[in-house]
Design brief:
The complex is a heterotrimer. By secondary structure, chain A is mainly α. Chain A has ten helices and five strands; from the N terminus they run αααβαβαβαββαααα. Chain A folds into two domains: 189 residues, Rossmann fold (3-Layer(aba) Sandwich); 56 residues, no CATH class. Helices cover 43% and strands 6% of the residues of chain A. In chain A, strand 1, helix 4 and strand 2 form a beta-alpha-beta unit. In chain A, helix 2 runs antiparallel to helix 6 and helix 7 packs parallel to helix 9. The radius of gyration of chain A is 24 Å and the shape is globular. The N and C termini of chain A lie far apart (73 Å). By secondary structure, chain B is α+β, with helices and mostly antiparallel strands. Chain B has a five-stranded mixed sheet with strand order 1-2-5-4-3, with helices on one face. A three-stranded antiparallel sheet of chain B has the order 6-7-8. In chain B, a hairpin with a 2-residue loop joins strand 9 and strand 10. Chain B is globular, with a radius of gyration of 25 Å. By secondary structure, chain C is of the alpha+beta class. Chain C folds into two domains: 61 residues, no CATH class; 207 residues, Alpha-Beta Plaits. In chain C, strand 3 and strand 4 form a beta hairpin. In chain C, 39% of the residues are buried. Classes of the chains: A mainly alpha, B alpha+beta, C alpha+beta. Chains A and C meet through helix 5, strand 3, helix 6 and helix 10 of A and strand 1 and strand 4 of C. Strand 12 of chain B pairs parallel with strand 1 of chain C.
Chain lengths: 292, 626, 277
């Protein structure tokens, strides 16, 4: 069976056949070949890049896992190792590079900065995690991760690839029936603007102008779902809109709907559980004392 | 006038700092006044006369080297912005500090680029981050942030999107430390804030002209991009920020005529991670691990510079014990080891840039792995050593470099520390340097590619504030370890490496000599370590406090790092008891300022040479962009 | 002469290639055996060049001072009285000294009286912010937070895996002793016992009262001995020392501390007098 046929919508694999021996072993073979010839893109961002080079050098040598062919062009790369702090200025080229990589493509966030902003998270020019813009497959914590920690992350990525099936379109986009959309490249304005959030920015400006109750972070999913076909159209609409009042953009977040309100519940539960544990320990201790 | 009569004009360039200040005051009584704030030094110059007086300082008094130009925002303490200039004589000696003040709205200070070209990038940085306008500057554009960014972030009243409090530690961490992610508190979840008058329509303009307009190129992009007619003979070529040979996320925009570079504009800020803004929120101690991440190849040197600056401030107070001899010896050893790492790395990657892709690097960085093993066993981390403390160190050398099995398949090692060091210093590192020299020094390919390429003359090197091997490769024997010695360097026997040619090859030669000199220093350190074994690394025998109070004042601590002069300008603005957070924390980064002459060095060379020239400057982006 | 530059480079590679075999012969091919001794030779200062670490099959063990992500020490399971109890007293010094402020602590409160208890109710470390600087461990006055050596933490999802809560952070004291025997031993000497400062204090107070009143068969120093048989060989013989009467290292400290306390009181009195006058 040709692989391309599997990917076409005319030949969907029935659910009962998904674990069919032919397909699973084909998946295995395919994944085996792919995971052992991962070509990372040759670019380094910050401190972690030095450890990435150390991992590539003779002592740790990631060519033992098939990672050695580092390509300077995204067109030949399978894997993007985001090795270091992603700044707002740098995320623009990074997203563009990611869009230029052919599928299947993977992103490995190396170090605390690429995962979640790291020690520089509070900084005004720092993106709080690569996953704010790109789908990250593996996160490697550490500041910086030692070469062995990076190798562990690479093995984790290989495991992940092993688990993916060419039969299941929902698993990864490139095995699915639709072609993947390129990630919109962020725009550098007064601050960085994610085109996916254009609509939200516009609506907030409007809300501010109309002095309606402000929009909280909770509205984010709904807002992105409502994004109009063209972000540019929205943008021009905003340009035509009357100037808005400055203070109104200082959002007062609605108390009930905030995402961390949920966390409050969890925290409360956790606290109760901790107390219960503590009580249990106390009783256990008392029992032990009695037995003595 | 009297003073000028006593001291003949030609002698002025060797006067002491006090005499120089006295001379300035007597010559310009209406424009120069002494800076008499507590703990401050130098003079305050009336900004209208700044350029004239700077000329006098350079030409008559002989302070020909502008080390650092820093902007400070004194919000709430005079409500003015201040530019602080540190100037030195290339013959050695301490700094003459002069300052110019301006009010916060409508900030304007005349540019000193006409006096010192080295002020170029530093003034652009001050404009970008502090919003001071410099009339007379040839290309006053933002340098670290992008053109169009809202606000000047280092002003004290500017708050970032994830702003929590003015100073650390934050109250939300303890005792009611319910965990939150900063993005949860931000409406967009992406560390952004937007001004009320945001104009989304204009931002979608991604035309070629718009992309390059903010760079201030000396060429008309529109004309060059015009494909009609034959008048177009120049081409704009973009290199980076994603380019394997720009040593990180550095970008250059070249204008080329055929293959020949006619102009070059460095574009930076792709790794600007707000070191200084974060540094001013941090306590003094918090900043040490952050300095590790400046020049991440030689973190020990970064620690040293910062610790020296804060110790300078602390010595203004009453309760201060200078570090012990053993502590100083250990510091010097660590710094010299990281210098070796730095130069091996620099030479390796420079070869990468001139065409010997990666194989030589593998041979040169193998010694680095051993040194990093040592750092890991002593300081706890391979790269981010975080080893030095105010008045001491994180810990003494362990008796044995011993690992412990923890994970499956862990293989342990156990070496005697002094034996390991002795073997490294006496055998392995010299062997690697010999090998390197055998391969490169007389290598015809290296000579063909590097002799006469990227020439920086002696005058330009000084005027452009070049530092480190870039300065010494141009015939200026200026090494801070000798020019203004710190730590135990005065008693150590070593030579300042210097070459006269000023080209890529000369810089390579300087680096190789410095490798040899570092080994020479290390060989002198070993007996000192043995002699002081058992001595405490802390002056009073116990580690310093976690929240030291630092007396009011300013300090500029500088060290000769692998890449050049690394300086820290720290202002403490505490009350009577001192402060626990720096008011201003500025890093004079050699990688940043060494890029100022990049344009003149590349002019007339081929595109392929530009990469090599950049490699011979030896930059690291963590420090360039901070 | 043209071509020598290239030849030089090739010669260098060739020499390294040959040297690796010369080294093999010198060590009688022992380098390839998967034993610890040979590993130390391979990765030491004696071999020429560097030799690849076959990562998942053999790992470079990290040194004692190595720091990665912090963890919290709890008392060992087999401790007679304080089993599973936190060493952390939620004093908050680690949260204050943390440069990127990645530590969150909820101070414990007694559910009945509402007063603070020396035990954190919740403890979080966001490892996406942590910069592995080791300050928390360095400045903790109770030796309760330490830097872990486990670097194999890669995950597929950071939202659920990268905020370590108290449960995830807590590791027994014996784990710390196994990954850093020398330092654990030094800390024990400074503290006076293998267990927590408070426990040691209690034990000592108990011992003192026991000596004055009726002697009890249940010996207080037992836990120290019990736990001391596990750590590294050089630590073991000395570890029993604190239990010996009179020779205990903390008695000296106690005297010094007492003197210091007296001095402090004197200073305080003087200050008070000065303020009054």
């Amino acid at each position: 069976m040709k692989l391309q046929e599997l990917n076409q919508s005319e030949y969907p694999v029935p659910a009962e056949l998904e674990n069919n021996i032919a397909i699973t072993s084909l998946s295995q073979l395919y994944n085996w070949g792919r995971r052992n010839s991962m070509w990372p893109m040759l670019f380094g961002l910050a401190c972690c890049a030095i450890e990435m080079i150390a991992t590539a050098a003779s002592r740790f040598d990631f060519s033992r896992f098939g990672f050695e062919v580092m390509r300077a062009t995204p067109r030949q790369a399978d894997l993007m190792i985001v090795s270091g702090t992603v700044t707002k200025k740098m995320v623009v080229p990074i997203v563009r590079l990611y869009n230029q990589m052919p599928e299947p493509k993977y992103v490995l966030a190396m170090g605390a900065c690429a995962s979640g902003g790291g020690p520089f998270k509070e900084g005004y020019n720092v993106v709080s995690g690569m996953d704010k813009y790109l789908p990250v497959d593996v996160y490697v914590p550490g500041c910086p991760p030692t070469p062995q920690a990076l190798l562990y992350g690479m093995i984790a990525l290989q495991r992940k690839i092993d688990g993916q099936s060419i039969a299941n379109g929902d698993d990864v986009p490139w095995y699915g029936v639709s072609s993947a959309e390129p990630t919109p490249v962020p725009v550098l304005g007064p601050d960085i603007i994610d085109p996916r959030q254009m609509d939200m920015i516009r609506r907030q400006a409007e809300a501010a102008a109309a002095e309606l109750p402000s929009i909280g972070a909770r509205d984010l999913p709904a807002a992105t779902a409502l994004v109009a076909a063209s972000a540019t159209a929205d943008a021009t609409a905003v340009a035509d809109a009357p100037p808005v009042d400055g203070d109104a953009l200082n959002f007062v977040l609605p108390t009930g709907a905030a995402p961390w309100a949920e966390a409050e519940d969890i925290r409360e539960k956790r606290r109760l559980r901790a107390l219960a544990r503590k009580a249990l320990r106390a009783t256990r201790r008392a029992v032990a004392a009695e037995e003595e | 006038m009297d003073l000028a009569a006593v001291a003949p004009e030609k002698k002025l360039d060797s006067t002491s700092i006090d005499e120089a200040i006295a001379h300035l005051q007597s010559e310009y009584p209406d424009a120069v006044s002494p800076d008499d704030r507590e703990g401050y030094c130098g003079v305050i110059v009336e900004r209208g006369r700044l350029v004239d007086i700077a000329r006098v300082i350079r030409d008559d008094l002989g302070f020909d080297y502008l080390s650092s130009a820093t902007a400070v925002d004194y919000l709430g303490a005079g409500d003015h912005l201040e530019m602080v200039y540190h100037t030195y004589r290339t013959s050695g000696g301490p700094a003459l500090v002069f300052k110019a003040q301006t009010d916060r709205d409508n900030a304007e200070i005349p540019s000193l680029v006409s006096v010192w070209r080295g002020a170029d990038f530093q003034e652009r940085e001050a404009w970008d981050l502090m919003g001071i306008h410099f009339p007379g500057h040839p290309n006053l554009k933002r340098i670290l942030m992008w053109e169009g960014f809202q606000g000047h972030p280092l002003r004290k009243d500017w708050r970032e999107a994830y702003y929590e409090e003015d100073q650390k530690p934050f109250d939300s961490r303890w005792p009611g430390g319910h965990v939150h992610r900063a993005e949860e508190k931000n409406v967009f979840g992406k560390n952004v804030t937007y001004p009320p008058d945001i104009d989304l329509g204009r931002l979608m303009d991604t035309s070629e002209a718009a992309v390059y307009q903010s760079l201030g190129l000396g060429v008309d992009v529109e004309r060059i991009m015009d494909k009609d007619g034959f008048e177009t003979n120049e081409l704009v070529v973009n290199m980076g920020p994603h380019h394997p040979s720009t040593h990180g996320v550095f970008r250059m925009v070249l204008t080329v005529d055929g293959e020949t570079v006619t102009s070059l504009e460095p574009v930076m800020g792709y790794l600007h991670r707000n070191h200084e803004k974060i540094g001013e929120r941090n306590t003094y101690l918090h900043n040490i691990p952050f300095t590790d991440r400046l020049d991440y190849i030689s973190s020990m040197g970064n620690n040293h510079g910062y610790v020296l600056a804060v110790e300078q401030l602390m010595s203004l107070g009453r309760k201060y014990n200078p570090p012990t001899y053993r502590c100083e010896a250990l510091r010097v050893m660590m710094v010299e080891l990281s210098r070796i790492v730095n130069h091996l790395w620099a030479i390796g990657f420079w070869l990468n840039d001139i065409g010997a892709f990666f194989t030589p690097v593998l041979y040169f960085v193998q010694e680095r792995e051993r040194i990093l093993d040592f750092f890991e066993a002593v300081a706890g981390s391979r790269m981010m050593c975080n080893y030095m403390r105010f008045g001491g160190l994180f810990g003494d050398l362990p008796d044995r470099l011993k690992s412990v099995s923890n994970l499956t398949n862990d293989r342990v090692r156990d070496y005697n520390t002094m034996q390991f060091l002795t073997e490294m210093i006496n055998e392995r590192i010299p062997r690697t340097i010999d090998e390197l020299e055998r391969l490169l020094t007389q290598n015809e390919i290296v000579i063909e590619r590097s002799v006469g390429v990227g020439v920086l003359t002696r005058e330009d090197a000084i005027n452009y504030s070049a530092a480190g091997p870039l300065l010494r490769g141009s015939g200026v024997a200026y090494d801070i370890r000798r020019a203004e010695p710190y730590s135990i360097y005065p008693e150590l026997d070593f030579d300042v490496a210097v070459e006269d040619e000023g080209d890529m090859y000369a810089r390579y030669r300087v680096r190789v000599s410095e490798l040899r000199e570092s080994v020479r220093i290390l060989k002198q350190i070993l007996p000192r370590l043995e002699a002081t074994a058992g001595e405490s690394i802390w002056a009073d025998g116990k580690p310093g406090a976690y929240a030291p109070r630092v007396p009011h004042g300013e300090a500029y601590g500088r060290v000769e790092n692998g890449k050049g002069e690394l300086g820290y300008y720290v202002v403490s603005a505490g009350g009577r008891g001192g402060s626990s957070n720096p008011w201003r924390y500025h890093v004079r980064a050699p990688s940043f300022i060494n890029l100022t002459p990049m344009g003149i060095m590349s002019r007339g060379h081929k595109v392929a040479d530009v990469v090599g020239i950049l490699g011979s400057i030896d930059i690291v982006l963590g420090e360039t962009d901070r | 002469m043209y071509g020598t530059g290239l030849a030089k480079g090739l010669m260098l590679t060739l020499r390294h290639f040959v040297e690796s075999y010369v080294d093999d012969i010198r060590y009688g091919f022992r380098k390839y055996h998967h034993s610890t001794d040979n590993f130390a030779i391979r990765q030491g200062t004696k071999t020429k060049g560097v030799i690849t670490v076959q990562y998942p099959d053999e790992k470079v063990a990290v040194p004692e001072r190595f720091r990665f992500i912090p963890f919290l020490i709890v008392e060992d399971e087999d401790h007679p009285t304080r089993s599973g109890k936190d060493w952390c007293t939620s004093c908050g010094i680690c949260a204050k000294v943390c440069p990127p402020q990645c530590i969150w602590i909820v101070r414990g409160n007694d559910p009945v009286s509402g007063r603070p208890v020396p035990e954190p109710e919740a403890f979080f470390i966001d490892i996406d912010i942590c910069m592995n600087c080791g300050y928390c461990a360095e400045y903790c006055p109770f030796d309760a937070i330490k830097m872990d050596h486990d670097y194999e933490l890669a995950s597929y999802d950071r939202t659920t895996h990268h905020i370590h809560d108290k449960e995830r952070l807590s590791k027994p004291n014996s784990y710390w002793r196994s990954i850093a025997p020398t330092r654990a031993y030094e800390e024990m000497l400074a503290r006076g016992a293998w267990e927590h400062k408070d426990a040691a204090k209690e034990a000592r107070r108990g011992a003192a009262s026991a000596r004055t009143s009726a002697p009890k068969p249940a010996a207080q120093p037992a836990p120290a001995q019990q736990t001391a048989d596990k750590p590294s060989p050089e630590a073991a013989p000395a570890a029993t020392a604190p239990t010996a009467e009179g020779a205990a290292p903390w008695t000296e400290d106690e005297a010094k501390r007492e003197e210091r306390r007296r001095k402090a009181l004197g200073r305080k009195a003087r200050r008070a007098a000065k303020r009054g006058g």
